[in-house]
Amino acid sequence: MNRYTGAAALTAAVVLPMIVDRGLLEDFSRVFVLILAVLGVHLLTGTTGLISLGHGIFVGIGAFSMANLLDQNLPVVVALVIATAMAGMAGVIVALPSLRVRGPYLALITLGLAVMFPPIGRRLGRFTGSALGRTVDVGGFDPPDFLRLDDHPHIWNYVVCLIVVAGWFLLTRNLLNSRIGRAIRATKDHEHAAAAFGINVALAKTGTFAISAAMAGTAGALQAIIDPYLNTNDYDWTFSLKLYTSAVIGGLGSLLGAVVGAVIYVGLPWLNEFLGLLDSPSLAFGLGLLIVIMVAPNGVVGLLPRFSKKPNSETS
Amino acid sequence: MDLFLQRCFDGLFNGAIYASLALALVMLFRATGLLNFALGEIGMVGGYTSLVMLTPAAAAAGGGGFVFPVAGTSLVSWLPGHPYPVVVAIGFGVIASALLGVLLQRLVLYRLRNRSDFVKVNATIALLLALAGLVTEVWGGLSHRYPSVFPDDPGDYIDVFGGRLRYTTLGAWAVQLALLLLLGALINRTKTGLAFRAITSNAEAASLMGIPVQRTLAIGWAVSCGIGALAVSIVAASTILRPGMMVTVLILAFAAATIGGLDSPKGAVMGGVIVGLTQSLVPGYTPFPSELAVVPPFLAMTILLMFRPTGLFGTARVVRV
User: Fold this and answer.
1) ipTM for this model
2) Contact B73, B57 (CB under 8 A)
3) Which among B121, B251, B291 has CB closest to A51?
4) pLDDT per residue over A251-280, tens digit each?
5) Closest CA relative to residue B236, chosen from B223, B247, B227, B245
6) Cβ of B127 under 8 Å from any chain A Cβ?
7) Which of A53, A119, A278 sits opposite B137 (nearest CB)?
8) Between B126 and B318, whose confidence is greater?
9) pLDDT digits over B214-254, tens only?
């Protein structure tokens, strides 16, 4: 995204709450949160080539941590930061064993965790509300007085989501263009050569995984604020797989791909329902990914003329 | 003691299922170097095909008591002899999965042959989602009862020092050992097996030597996916047939294959036994809740990977820099 598209997007995002009604604005907030979740997958797979089929669990960890931290009457901002950190730490715990070995083990282990997350969550009693799910107490999260938004909590939620997501976006972009980002990309291109240049490959991979998990955690925490009802069953393996699929369909070469991916995550089932094609959105996601692999190696973003001349971002 | 034996036997039954799927995974991994995430769902298509083949069309009309109607039975009811006995129906299922495997190899993975491993793994992930969706789309989300090939009444067991060794467990292991022998013969005694090894070591050189690479890979896919359908029929007979049931089973089969070292058939079977036993013994003797029986084998795999990345029987991979 260059300066002008960025400015245009920001303007559109600011104007939006003035022109759309409440329901639509809440939908937009949900899309922003999904952008963040997809961005997490995007950062991991796009920069390191690692496959995580379980980022849904980090969204879940963020959401349930948020709910329980709010139970302790912590301020929302503090709870958001802690929930993010908890998801990041969970990411480190997942990444450490699986990154010692090469090959698709990380995909395997994360898919396993995604399968196990709902049954484990159902056993955790009050923390997750067991099988019935739980509500999130966001009572204390009122907009500050000077904004005069007391009657419009949905706009306040929208603004918070927008700021947090934009913050993560900036952070990711700057990180990727920094020395650390170059190191991470070097490990993707050639692990052994990167190691020979003094890059700590394991640290680069684990760090990227942790950041991307933290991002997913923030997405979950924001989700808990927007839709204050959580159930572990919503964070099953199909959720994780759809996140991954959306990120790849959107395109891993540019950050815009994460935005496109989130739009696909929301838009594909909607389009499917609108056209009355298929009963199960999984089929649509699977076929979509297959078509993208066959036709557009750089994802939907790669089809745009501006990005099509970039070298193939395929991972080896 | 008898409780211990009982738990061992239960574990061995599941172990046979994981071992057979792990064998299918290892087989394909050796032939193509690919972990097939879609194997379980390809097997599901075969499983449902066999269900269609053994369910009378009357049940489709709603006349079969508690039998849920199965989509597609009326399409095949004109076949002579339909509904078929279970063994024949499973045969149809195995053929359906094998054909599907060959078809997918031709239509999808053959076209990706020059692309990176990342893209190929993505393709199997896409197939996992697409086929899981397809099965729900065609056959709905309902659970179906699935008959067992082996005698499965409550009294069908051999008493071994107080533990009940069920005929289904014996049957599953008979199938498993037969598979191991057949696969061993295929890999070690036939020209196709020789071609497998040639392709794995260097596909390009193999094709220059006149080995029909595509045909050999198609055989690999057919055998692997056929085993998938067989495993589905065993799982379905011991519980029920429902969409999505194979994901957990496949994860544990992956764990079994990984513990065994991913490229060793012997290791796959050992891994299956280890996973099956961990799954039944750990919740049996620790306060670990039995709904979470998936977790201990998975932990075992993760810990093993940390200390022995090549598994128990795997060969270490050397990467040229």
Assistant:
1) 0.85
2) yes
3) B121
4) 887 888 888 899 888 888 888 888 877 777
5) B245
6) yes
7) A278
8) B126
9) 888 888 899 999 999 999 999 998 888 888 889 889 999 99
Q: Is residue B170 one of the residues assigned to a domain? A: yes
Q: CB A290 to CB B127 under 8 A?
A: yes
> Measured in whole angstroms, how far is the alpha carbon of residue B272 from the centre of its chain?
11
Q: Is residue B299 a part of any domain in this protein?
A: no
Dihedral of the CA atoms B45, B47, B53, B58 (nearest 10)? -100
Report the pLDDT value the prediction gives residue A315, as an integer from 0 to 100: 45
Range of the domain at B85: 2-245
**Where residue A87 falls among pLDDT bands split at 50, 70, 90?**
very high
User: How many alpha carbons lie under 13 Å from residue A160 in its C-beta half-sphere?
Assistant: 25
Structure tokens given for A229? 């009802």
**B81 found inside a domain:** yes
Note whether A115 contacts B115, CB cutoff 8 Å: no
Residues 6+ apart with CB under 8 A from A77: none
Query: Looking at beta carbons, which residues of chain B come within 8 Å of A289?
Result: 122, 125-126, 129-130
Interface contact B154, partner A, CB < 8 A:
no
pLDDT level of residue B123 (50, 70, 90 thresholds) = very high
Tell me which chain B residues have a C-beta less than 8 angstroms from the C-beta of A124. none
pLDDT of residue B273: 92
Task: Please tell me which of the candidates B119, B133, B294 has its beta carbon nearest to residue A293.
Answer: B119
Q: Are strands B163-166 and B157-160 parallel, antiparallel or unpaired?
A: antiparallel
What pLDDT was estimated at residue A183?
86
Number of other residues whose CB lies within 10 A of the CB of residue B28 = 25
Give the phi and the psi of residue A159 in degrees, each rounded to 5: -60, -45
Q: In terms of Cα–Cα distance, which of A184, A241, A254, A253 is closest to B133? A: A241
B121 and A98: CB-CB below 8 Å?
no
What confidence tier does A124 reach under pLDDT thresholds 50, 70, 90? confident
Q: How many domains does chain B have?
A: 1
CB contact under 8 A, B123 and A245: no
Look up residue A53 and give its DSSP letter. Answer: S
CATH number reported for the structural domain that contains residue B114 in this entry? 1.10.3470
Q: Which residue in chain B has the smallest CA separation from A102?
A: B309
Query: Does the structure show a pLDDT above 90 at B35?
Result: no
Set of chain A residues whose Cβ sits within 8 Å of the Cβ of B263: none
Beta-carbon separation of B119 and A104 below 8 A:
no
Tell me if chain A has a CB within 8 Å of the CB of B128: yes
**Could you tell me how far CA B130 lies from the centroid of its own chain?**
18
Predicted TM-score of the model (pTM): 0.88
Residue B319 placed within a domain: no
| Of A211, A210, A205, A233, the residue nearest A63 (C-alpha) | A233
Picking from A230, A267, A197, A207, the residue whose alpha carbon sits closest to that of residue A38 is A267
Residues for chain A: how many in total? 316
The whole-angstrom distance between A170's CA and the closest CA on chain B is 28
